[in-house]
Amino acid sequence: MDKKEEKEEVKRIFTGYKRMTPKITRELRRLGIFVVRQRNHVVLSVSDGETRHLVPISSTGGDKRGGLNMARKIISCL
Question: Which of 25, 46, 51, 61 is a good FRET partner for 31, with 20 to 30 A between their CA atoms?
Answer without folding.
Answer: 61
